[in-house]
Predict the 3D structure of the following.
Amino acid sequence: LAMAAPMEGGQMMRCGPGRKPRLAVQIDAGARRLRGRRPTANASPQNRNSSLCSTSRSTDFCEDKEHFTWRARGWSRVRLAGLGVSVAAAVVAGAHGGPAWAADFVKTGGCVLSKCQLELASCLGDEKCLENLVCLNSCAKCPSDEEAACQIKCGDLYNDKAIAAFNTCAVTNKSCVPQKMDNGMYMEPPSDVLVPEFDTSMMEGRWYITAGLNPLFDTFDCQEHYFTAPEKGRLYAKLKWRVKKPNGQFIERSDVQTFVQDEDKKGMLLNHDNEFLHYQDDWFVLGMRPDEYVAVYYRGSNDAWDGYGGAVVYTR
């Protein structure tokens, strides 16, 4: 995927000037009023720092680990919020010329404005949700092959109840945003490349993700996953990771997920039947050595995007 390719040098880049739609200017001004600042011409949080066009992430030292690790959040609920609200809010904020799933501005924006009025009003009155709209609007300045990645990054940075409610209305309940369809980039691997046997109890305890494939989802700083296997064929995971902010600080994120082993393919773990965006992720264990490493490839689907994927390596 073009949007999954890291940019050279690992630096976030400003996408250039570009004229802002009227609503975007109003959102920029509103964000400053919430923070008690005077609006300035063509100013936004992203202008003060840089646009989030680059998908590359720099490594960061994990304070509780005596070596550098890569953040690899993967399969997280907050990632899904980014996928969904990035689409819906970008349309309202005026992100013209984006990917195919946000291209029909009039149709999608009209649906959001007519069917999600309460959720949109709550968003505009919520500081984090409003900041998210400002961030998403800045993505309109990105090259077309980087815009979606920029929107996902905004979803990484901003997350609260107002964003989740708007996302649920626009993407799931009212279907204002067409689902990004599977393009075949992340296919289900054949059974013969999976480990023939996999005991979920061997995942018990703490693991770090120390390598990742997809820079949109798999390369976050200081990620720790804590696993428990209460019974054979089941796996509970408590996920922790950090999202780096443009100012160099970071946000702690966490989530809890449940996996069930496929009856026929022991190297396949399923995380299905989730209410939020109806998301489901499938894990495929490609290789392992007990208490040393586990290599996992994954693919998933939700109301916003069908067929996203990536791969990570767990180590102790």
